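Late entry, evening session. Most of the bench is empty. Finally got around to the prediction I had been postponing all week. Sequence below, unchanged from the version circulated by S.P.
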Amino acid sequence: TGRSVYVGSNLRDVLKSVIKGEFTPPSTVWESRGDEFPYPKLLESICLKALSVDPSDRYQSAREFAEVIERFMNGVLEQERAKESAQEAYCLGQTYYALFIDRFEYQSKIAKKVELAQTNYKKSRTDDHRTELWALENQLDELLNPLEESFAHAISAFQSALRDVPDHNKSKASMTQLYKVRYQQALETNDQRMMIFFEERIKEYATDHELLE
């Protein structure tokens, strides 16, 4: 940074900052000058840990500190962080995946009720059956946005995991299953455009074995 960690207009202010552990992170110092931070964020995080005000939060020995820096220099630490980040994204994706499946199954049940209500109304033309049909159709419409949101969040999380670890096979497998569900839905409604779209996504992420299922 070209400046001391702790700065102040006088010694008292500097000591207060030291006691509280209040200092400006290196990247922020560079940005305040209007310059782009030229170092990896991971290296900055190592420095910030070493500067923690609580001794228990710092590296516990010079050897540990040196080993972390060596792992950083060799790229090992970055790979480990990428794997951790990918796993976090995958777990988040699984949460939205489960939510999507629950909502999809519920939507399918309501859709079947709508079909039955349509049949009943066509036969009877009564006000009661018409009211029932309208209520179910409204319920089905209200489920659409939450369903699409959970699907989009799941896909986004899995894609984030793949950006960190391109061969994160669990994320690929989960995305494949999600796209298969949507393909089947498009098939049942005879939506040719969406069938083609989801088929291409399946081919993009599925293994040879999954393509044959």
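Two things to note before I forget:
Residues 206 and 212 are 10 Å apart (CA to CA).
DSSP finds nine helices and no strands in the chain.
Will write this up properly tomorrow.
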